[in-house]
Amino acid sequence: MEGLSQPPRVARPQAVLFACGLNAVRSPMAAALLQQMFGRAIYVGSAGVQKGELDPFAVAVMDEIGIDISHHQAKTFEDLEDTSFDLVISLSPEAQHRAVELTRTMDCIVEFWPIFDPTVIEGDREARLQAYRAVRDHLQRRIRERFPPGPASRV
To answer: What is the average per-residue pLDDT within 62-83?
Structure first.
C-alpha cells in the first residue's frame, strides 16, 4: 500500500527462529516446513515462551505431508544455546513480546505472523485435525511467500 513503510527484510536469512507460546504446535510445524524447503541452507530453530508437550495432532498433520516432527523437543527462549538469528518470526502475541525483548540489543529482524492456535478447537477428532491442517497450510503459504527460491543473499 502506498504510504505504508515495510519493515526491513532479510531476503534469505542464514538463521531463522520461529516462536510461539509453548513450542508444541505452530513453531515446530513452521520450523519443519522451512527446513524441508531449504535443508541445511538455512539454520532453523523454534522456541516457546513456555515449554509444552509436542501435540499429537501437530505430529499427525505434518506426517500427512511427509514431515516427521515426532522427535521435536520443546524449548523456551531461555533454553536456546545460540541466539545468533537473522530473523525471528513470532506466531503468537506472547512470543512477539518475548522476541522483541530477546532481540533488543541484537542485529535481528522480528516479524509477527499472528497464526491461529488450533488447540482451542473443540469437537471430534476430524474437526480438530481440520483446524491443525488449516494452520499447517497457512504456515506453508506464508513461508513460501516469505522465503521464495532464489539466491541466498541479505537485503
So the answer is: 95
